[in-house]
Amino acid sequence: MAEPTKPSPGEYMLIRSNAESERLEKQFRAWQANIGYLLHPAIIQHDHMRIADVGTGTGIWLRELAGVVPATCELDGFDLSDSMFSRDGLPGNIKFYHQNFLEPFPEEFRGKYDVINVRVMVVALAADEWAPAVRNLITLLRPGGYLQWVDCAAHDCVVKVPEGVDGTHAAHYMEKFRTGMIAVGKAPNLGALHGIFQESGLADCEERICPLVNPDTREDINDTVIGGITHFLMAALNRGKIGLVRSTEEVMSLRKSALDDLSHGCYYCFDVHVVVGRKI
Ligand SMILES: C[S@@+](CC[C@H](N)C(=O)[O-])C[C@H]1O[C@@H](n2cnc3c(N)ncnc32)[C@H](O)[C@@H]1O
User: Which Pfam families match (predicted)?
Assistant: First the structure.
């Protein structure tokens, strides 16, 4: 079996496809039903905010935000790729820009934003890329502007198993993901993010940990976890990145067994962290 190879800096380890877009939007809604807000309550809002969503994906967070902030706010999405970004019915105050957020942003964007939002980068960033990413994103903020980062402790995900039910396949599928993430260098300590905010000079840093416990979202969380693991393993397989799985058929067989456990009442459970800090 092939030896694991490290991804290049900033290399994204999920596929970009319609299925992944649908998964991201379902994940967004399931998380929101647990988090309850788009902007952390500490963020002071006004009618002419300029807000960026970095690593915007489909742009779902920006589109939802456009529905709750005045149309006088400017909303900008940045991403390495616009292949998942949905332009259907896009409000006029949302714009998209290509940008790797590990590289310096063009001068026109620096110091211009009231809020920078980042969401779900666990599969995108190597463990040593989080601190440089935070420092780079701070360059976009105006004095007094906020950095908000919403992410999940995917590596700490556990399977809840009802009595008398077999949950070993669902746990095994998660273990493939965890081992694969470590093999490609993407195993962040999300608990360190709050400290990275503080060490980067942000003030009033706050972390809220939100366990995804709303039972109404359990099925969608299961779906999006299974989809995420499948897309990660397929992306890794296609790039010869990890030696954990040999073929698409093997991935599909592992997925089917995990789904079988979930259909008997097992469910994935993990925390979402919301970290916010203000530029002085
Ligand atoms: C897991 S998706 C999350 C998308 C969106 N934030 C959400 O919550 O649904 C990660 C997104 O970040 C983008 N991304 C990954 N690495 C990036 C980088 N270095 N610079 C800019 N975008 C990046 C990917 O292209 C992808 O669209």
Answer: Methyltransf_23
Residue found under tokens 């105006």: 142
Domain at 18-278: CATH code: 3.40.50.150
- Closest C-alpha among 108, 35, 26 to residue 74: 108
* Cβ(101) – ligand 1 distance below 6 Å: yes
- Rounded average pLDDT over 238-266: 91
The mean of the pLDDT values for the chain is 93
Ligand 1 atom having least distance to the Cα of 14: 1
C-alpha 176, offset from chain centre: 19
Domain boundary assignment for the chain: 18-278
Residue 269 C-alpha from the chain's centroid: 16
Q: Atom 1 (ligand 1): residue with closest C-alpha?
A: 120
Which two structure tokens, joined as six digits, stand for 142? 């105006």
- Which residue has the CA at smallest separation from atom 9 of ligand 1? 24
pLDDT at residue 172 in the model: 97
Identify the CA nearest to 152 among candidates 40, 39, 269, 14.
Answer: 269
Closest-CA residue, ligand 1 atom 8, reads 119
The sign of the CA dihedral 246, 120, 130, 35 is: negative
**119 CB near ligand 1 (under 6 Å):** yes
Q: 193, 152 in Cβ contact below 8 A?
A: no
At residue 12, the pLDDT reads 64
Encoding tokens for residue 119?
């969401």
* Short-list 134, 121, 130, CA closest to 277: 134
